[in-house]
# Entry
Amino acid sequence: MSTSPRLLGGRYEVGELIGRGGMAEVHLGHDARLGRPVAIKILRTDHARDAAFLARFRREAQSVAGLNHPSIVAVYDSGEEHVRESGGATIDIPYIVMEYVDGFTLRELLNDSESGTLDPKEAAGIVQHVLEALDYSHDMGIVHRDIKPGNVMVTHAGDVKVMDFGIARAIADTQATMTQTQAVIGTAQYISPEQARGETVDKRSDVYSTGCLLFELLTGRTPYTGEPISLTYQHVNADIPLPSSVNSEVPSELDAVIVHALTKDRDERYPDARAMAQDLEAFANGRPISPVATSRLEDVTSTLPVVVAPRAEAVTNPRNDPETASIPATAERRRGSRLGWLFAALLLIPLALLGWFAWTASQGPPEVTVPKVVGTSEESATATLTDLGLEVNTRSEPSDETAGQVTAQDPREGSTAHEGDEITLVVSAGPADVSVPNVVGMSRSEATGALEDVGLEVGGVTEEDSAEQGPGKVISASPSVSETVSKGASVDLVIASGQVELKDYVGQDISDVRSELYDLNLEVREQTEESSAPVGTILAQNPAAGSVKQGTEVTFVVAEKPASTVTESPSSTSETSEPSDSESTSDESEPTSTDSDSESSSQSQSPDPSGTSPSPTEPDTGSSPRSTRSPGSP
# Structure
């Protein structure tokens, strides 16, 4: 019955074991999402509770995650798998998902070689690629610190890949010393003198290790051999061996490159990986290497001791001198023996001291219990941990806590660590910046909720007359909408009062006023009145100018053209017109003169003998048809 493959992160299928080291195991894997092969490096379970191994493993993922170079094995992803132990406890096992490289390590290539060495030009070409990868990582601020044949792969296509940045450190990390156990400081056959002395490392330390790597590719052995204590001494004090003294086929140019790379004083070494790579490229192309490397080789060869075989006659009488011939041979041997023991003792004293220091280091630094520093300031936490001999690495993250306060630590309080171990502190950078949401048009309560949802508070609230928003709606915010502010900041709001400012429109044309009042959310009512003013002119308004509520009805009295006026004279009646109702048909109602004899107007006239009224068409002469005299007139 087939079983489902082990799955990490819901994505990576764990396959067969393809490599094993002292810290981790490497499996062939499959990325189910992207459908490609990957290499999965998983920390061994027996190291999952060791803070030093956890820190080293996590550092590898962090170091390589930002590196992108064709000669560096790429890291795709990392995570942790929750594993339940037999006792029921749960532990987190970290893993790293890397580029799968189909090829061999340099260690495997050396083991498979009949001579145990590589061709000088092939070796120089491989190491040149290693140096180019290191030059890139150095530019990115990372020192590898563990260059060796097992950490360099060559693909079937001939590509070179540098891997295992497990003990890599940032160049700027001035505390990155090598005073830790051998499992952490690197491999003894390849460590630089400054690493062996426990001093800080830099990019020139990787240059030294790469020189050791090239030496081994050319000769089949490392520059120095022996036990770890002896190796440490040799890296610091021993003369630099020439690869040509082990393999006569090594050209002098590569002797010079290796001697320059293995110089004890780092200030006299290649200044960086690029300079060494340039000399190897020059060698491969048949060009001269740098004069400084050639000069370094000359200095070394000129100081090498010359061994001369002793003459046979010197045993009995070195000078053929009769006086010395009488000296017993035993006395010479005893003197030489005493001097030999004296020199041996002088040499053994520093070796013994170095061995004692190395033994002390192998026992591991003292254990300490990690204290709780969460909730304290960064300065206080750093001082507390430093006093215990722990290294401190801090990173800032946004937090609601006060800026500068420690919000998390790794390892946690109560964990066991060793002097020199690294404690990571997460320090609050203060509240994160947020964007002011769009609250324009919302009611005050709605705007308050929207601001609180993103961690902001309502500050001052003021009212303002506006026709843009209805009563109680937000007109504007300060800081303005979409502006970035610190979390917890206050935002002032301007709320519409519901009032608008009404102007005095008397004298203006009503057609120019209507749209303006509609924009103010006011109603318009019009009344007309005859006026000599131009038609449409506003003669009066109600209410008068001032602040009014939105929706108020404003009444305007508007001028209209007056009606036409007709003037009628007494002679305007036509001859055929009928008498009006007010006119009398009797002789007594006949109009009288308006002259000075007006008194006769109140007297009746005598009937006309003819019995007919005067003709209505008779011209008006300004006086009555008849003159009526007052009584007593002549």
In short: The chain has a mean pLDDT of 78.
